[in-house]
Amino acid sequence: MARKVMWVVCVVVGAITVAGCGASSRPKIGVLLPEKYNTPDGMVLGPDGNIYLSVPNCNDSNYPAKILKIDRRDRISEVFTPPKHPQTGKACPLGIDVGPDGNLYVADNQSMFGHNDHKSRLLRVNMKGGKAVGCDVLVTGFIQSNAVSCHGDSVYVTETSLDLDADPMPSGVYRFRFSEFKGKPVVLKPDAKDKHLLVQFLTHNKDWRVGANGMGIDAEGSLYVCNFGEAALLKFTLDDQGNIESHKIVAQGRGMKSTDGLKIHPKTGEIYIADFIDNAVHKVCPKTGQVTTIWRNEDNSGGIGGLLDRPSEVCLRGDKIYVSNIDLGIKGNKYDEPHTISVIKLK
User: Fold this and answer.
1) Phi, psi for 313 (deg, rounded to 5)
2) Confidence (pLDDT) at 347
3) What does each C-alpha distance from 310 to 226, 243, 340 come to in angstroms?
4) What's the rounded Cα separation, in Å, for the pair 302 and 14?
């Protein structure tokens, strides 16, 4: 694989921010999670109609990390317990996607437990007949592996920081061919020198040093990535080989305070984004950059009644937006019950 890394420096395009409510009602509790599933995060809608949910349990690590399933009736069941890292004794599943082989590809972000020394991983949970039958470690050496997207012959993984000491802080996206996953795991070279690094960009926000985060690929094969600390949504056009042809900032700010997890609507192409800092969910038009705030509530809600409580991810199923409330106890936020997946019904 040829090494071709692109730096992103570009101006913001798009229409003015539209603040409003694109939902028919306020959020409700879609799934009430028990204490043993205390930190919900990444979600993906599987081809079987079930939502697969990563639960790193970093708020209370007395409970092991889990992968759960939310069925069509919003009932939960356990799918898999990710393997603990042999050195840290922890697993921390965040981003999750379903590959063309039907298996689950999961980012294990060890930095959530303070391990920033290249211990994060990419895992594959092997599925057969709707059940997990094993797990393989595919890639090691990430600092903060985060979102995962499968497309064509490749899997893409966001690296939330490529250098924790740099200012501004670089982050980026790695791409791996499925054909590379044979035998021993791929071991990344440090210092952004690995051939799999597809693109990198900068985060200038000193208060929120969080870079590449949520990610998705639309029907035309364009790659969308969130730069959390810049409250920005980036677009990368890919060629037939998966290399970047062009890039732009679709939207930045415009009512968004951060850009965490995202999902692309399969019919409209609109992009839904979880705003962790502002307890909000936004919708972005990829053509104009127009931002519509679907819902926002104050930070003191505690998640009561389904209100958003530091949301990190969204997932679309039918006419509903599912929102993971990761509720991390950082930056003045208090981690507390209830542990919820909120549901917002779209118009």
Assistant:
1) -150, 150
2) 80
3) 16, 34, 11
4) 34
Residues 192 and 202: beta-carbon distance below 8 Å: no
HSE-CB at 218 with a 13 A cutoff on CA atoms is: 21
How many beta carbons lie within 10 A of that of residue 135, not counting itself? 19
Alpha-carbon distance values, 316 to 163, 293, 324 (Å): 33, 16, 12
DSSP H or E segment with residue 345: strand 339-345
Average model confidence (pLDDT) across the chain = 93
For residue 164, give the nearest of 143, 140, 137, 139 by alpha carbon. 143
Mean pLDDT over 229-244 rounds to 94
Q: Quick one: pLDDT band at residue 25, thresholds 50, 70, 90?
A: confident
Per the CB < 8 A criterion, the answer to whether 186 and 140 are in contact is yes
Name the residue among 338, 297, 341 with its Cα closest to residue 71: 341
CA angle 309, 310, 312 (to 5 degrees): 125
pLDDT at 10 over 50: no
Residue 299's pLDDT band (cuts 50, 70, 90): confident
Three-class HEC string of 267-336: CCCCEEEEECCCCEEEEECCCCCCEEEEEECCCCCCCHHHCCCCEEEEEEECCEEEEEECCCCCCCCCCC
CA gap 77, 60 in Å, rounded:
20
Strand order in the sheet with 131-142: 93-98, 104-108, 120-128, 131-142, 186-187
Tell me the torsion sign for CA atoms 211, 308, 272, 127. positive
Between CA 327 and CA 309 the distance in angstroms is 5
Q: Is the pTM of this model over 0.90?
A: yes
Domains of the chain, CATH where assigned: 12-345 (2.120.10.30)
Sign of the Cα torsion 186, 191, 195, 198 reads: positive
Q: How far is CA 274 from CA 218, 266, 310, 315, in A?
A: 18, 17, 9, 10
- Residue 1: pLDDT band (50, 70, 90) is very low
Rounded-to-integer distance, Cα 318 and Cα 315, Å: 10
Instruction: Note the pLDDT of residue 301.
Output: 81
- pLDDT of 21: 44
